[in-house]
Amino acid sequence: MPPNDAKPLRERLGGTSGRFLVGFNASISFSDLARCTSFGGHLSELRRRSVLITARDQLATALALVELDGISRRLAICPPDLSSKQLTWVCESAGIDAIVSDYEAPIEHENSCERWHIDCCAGMKPVDHMPVGHERSEWLLLTSGTTGAPKILAHDLQSLTASTKVDNYSERPVVWGCFYDIRRFAGLQVFLQATLGGGSLVLAGGDESLEGYLARLIAHSATHISGTPSQWRRVLMSPLAKRLAPRQLTLGGEIVDQAILDGLRSFYPNSRITHIYASTEAGVGFAVNDGLEGFPASMVGSRRGGVEAEVEDGSLRLRSGRAANRCVGGDGSAVQDEGGFVDTGDSVALRGDRYYFLGRRTGAINVGGLKVYPEEVEAVINRHPKVRMSRVRSRKNPMTGNIVVAEVVLIGDHSQTTTIRTAELEGEILQICRKALAQHKCPATIRFVPSLDVAPTGKLARHHA
Amino acid sequence: MSVKEIILSQIQRVAQEQNRELAQLTDDLVLLQSGLDSLCFAVLVTRLEDALGIDPFTSSSEVYYPVTLGEFVRFYADAAK
Prior knowledge:
The complex is a heterodimer.
Chain A: E1 20-22, E2 27-29, H1 30-35, E3 36-37, E4 50-54, H2 58-68, E5 74-77, H3 84-93, E6 98-101, E7 114-117, E8 125-126, E9 138-144, E10 150-156, H4 157-160, E11 175-178, H5 185-197, E12 200-202, H6 210-219, E13 224-227, H7 229-236, E14 248-251, H8 258-267, E15 272-279, E16 283-288, E17 295-296, E18 303-304, E19 307-312, E20 315-319, E21 326-328, E22 342-351, E23 354-360, E24 365-367, E25 370-372, H9 374-381, E26 387-397, E27 401-410, H10 419-436, E28 446-448
Parallel strand pairs in A: 1-12, 4-5, 4-6, 5-9, 6-7, 11-12, 11-13, 13-14, 14-15, 27-28
Antiparallel strand pairs in A: 1-2, 3-8, 9-10, 10-21, 15-16, 17-23, 18-19, 19-20, 20-22, 22-23, 24-25, 26-27
Chain B: H1 3-17, H2 38-52, H3 56-59, H4 69-80
Helix pairs in contact in B: 1-2
């Protein structure tokens, strides 16, 4: 008998009675999850395959994960916003030979993969012989990389569920809500906690409004709700916010500041409020429950719950069995150093007896949980024929934590340029950005400056956190 | 221009740039139903800070999240006093 945490997901669902995965259009009971399939009798044909899961619907992704863990060799989980080029790149880098999708995913893969359709609305059907999973499937998670190509990180169910708590919730049912997308690390953690920990989970629909999703969370009496600080700020601006009554709410994915902790505390005085620090590379690090931003200095240098934290050159580093095993494709760089530590790239500073998060050391800007690399945006701004150079930086923002702003040096002497012409130029540059970049990467403002500092290295001077 | 006029014109500019269909900008309009998403609000608050020189979300000692457009305008107007 393998230990429980080495079993595939479908065999670890626990008690199934009264538990559901609730999507926007459909809902699946855990008893169906345990004994039915949405692949007809064909599930075993996906055995030992490297499968790309790219679905428009979160519920479809959830079903595919439960069905394929232990069956397939690799499960590459695609977030919803990948371009056709990125999807194709992931297929090539991860050696994908089967695609599971709920739509006609635009992939140009030379070695044509077999495509499988997953349809949640059609429901799951029992089969006579459910294939048993023996494979230790690799779970491939994507995170935004520096060059625009996503970074692919390989986990397995053991590393992903090392911090999952299995509880007997029979007396007080647990219903999870999640503003995160389960196709990214933080949301996947919520999915696994709900699935393995004995709860139900209400998932947002692809085009569902926040108000619509909040109304469903209220209708299902969600008890545990998770999201980024930016998502929570938005929730607090909703008239429905007061009608949520979570026993526990968690936040993470970007810097958790005192204002959002205080805001949540005043809205939900009876809830347990937890900041969870985690990253796709390092896995789940630690939880902070004391209602204060940052984390106690005593957490550094000690080993808690199987995780060791250290700070080197102002950068937070973590060592645990929860880190990604390796990086697939790309430059193949190692996730851990020789000592087994993962450099999170998050800068921290010690003030008194607490460490505070300052931002990304690489200079990546975190806009509401999504990373933006300034260089990518600058390259787009610099396409405007009147632009000599530009510098993109982060500016603090009460809605999304940070926002992208740009300083631009124009070609020629523009000290006499009229305000009207400046406004026109700003409009033209913003239009180029909106055409080429995702919305969160477009600068909120553009300031025209006579010059920009260049560091001794010859590079644009950047003032990182 | 009054604080309210500046806010309304900035809202229209953000909506136009992001191709958003705006609801009618009445005082009792719930902000989350205005047609602007969280990122649009983030842009709006940044531009208002440049235009008005204030960011009441950050400067106020109270934690406050306006729900309607009327509350949003009053939040800025009070901070600008």
